[in-house]
Structure prediction request, 336 residues.
Amino acid sequence: MPGLAQLKELLAHPRRIVITTHHKPDGDAMGSSLGLYNYLIQHGHHVQVITPTDYPDFLAWLPGNGDVIIYEDHIEQSKEFVDKAEIIFCLDFNNLSRINDLGEVVRAGSAVKVMIDHHLEPEDFDDYRHWDINAAATAQLVYDLIVHKFDDGEFVNPDVATCLYTGIMTDSASFKLPNTTSNVHRIAADLIDLGAVNWRIHELVYNNLSENKLRFLGYCLSNKLEVLYEYNTAIISVSRQELQQFEVMTGDTEGIVNYGLSIAGIRLAAFIVERKDRVKLSLRSKGEFPANEICKKYFNGGGHRNAAGGHSNDSLEKVIEQFKSILPEYKTLLIA
Ligand code: 5GP
Ligand code: MN
Prediction:
C-alpha cells in the first residue's frame, strides 16, 4: 500500500472527493468527517460528505453540516457523487458493511479509497490507510494527518479545529476513557488555541437535550435498569413500544448505556433496544473486559474493548435472555 506522502501528492490538485462515515454517525464520525471536509475545501477540492443514515440533532451545528447529504434520503444523487469521485475518504469505520447499502456502491466505485480509522480488524478495501487502534478518536487521526503527515497545520482553521475537538471529546467520553493520553490532551489544547471554543462545544453537545430525552432517561433508570450483581453487569432494555411512547428520536438513546457502568463495582453495561428492523446492543465495559468479543462472537458486531455494539434479528426478549446466558462464560473476568 502506498504511503501517505503519495496521498498528499494526489491532493496537490483540486479533486472530486467524497467523505463517508459509519451509519448512525456519532460525534467522532461527524467531527472527523466535517473536520476533514473543512480542511479539504480550503485547497479548492470539491468535497461531498455523505452519511449512510441520519444522525442526532446535537451534531447539526457542526461547521459544514449544511452541505452533508444522507444516502438513504438521496440515493441517486449519492451514487452519482460516488461514481464521479476521484478519492473517497472512509472515516471512523473499517468494514464496508458499516455503511449499509452505500458500502457496495463505494466498493464498486473506481475512486481511490482512503481509510482513516481506529477500530480493530480492518477489511482490505482501501488504497491508502491511516489506521491506529490506539487513537482515542478518528478525529485525532485526521489532526495527525493534516498536521504531521501533510505538514499542513496552518490549514487547521477554527472550523476544522471545532469539528476535530468535537470528535475527540465525544469518543473519549469527555477525556475520561483510558485512551485519553497526555498526547490527546495536547492535541485538544492545540485545537483550542486554533479556535475550538471548548466550553461552547461541551454546551452544544451535552446540554442540548430534549425534554423527552431527559424523561426517557429517567424512565430507563427507574423502570428498566436490571443489575446482576453476581456478574457485575447492568442491563437496560427498551422495547419499540417504549421508544414510541417517549417519541425517542435518533440520538436520544446515546449515552444511556454509560449509566449502568457508573454503578460501583459494575464491569459490564448493556443497552438493548428494539429498533424498527432489528434489536441493537450497545456494550460498555471497564478495564480489561472485552465487550467487543461478546459483540463479535454473538451479536454480528464488534468495536473497541470498552465500547462495542452489535445487533440481532431475534426478538428483544430472546436477545436479553441470550445476553444473560453468555455471562457465566465471562464470570471470572467479571468478578475478579
Ligand atoms: P455504540 O454502542 O455506540 O453503537 O457503538 C460502540 C462502538 O461499537 C462504536 O465504536 C462502534 O464502532 C462499534 N459498533 C457498534 N455497532 C457495531 C456493529 O454492528 N458492528 C461493528 N463492527 N461495530 C459496531
Ligand atoms: Mn470513533
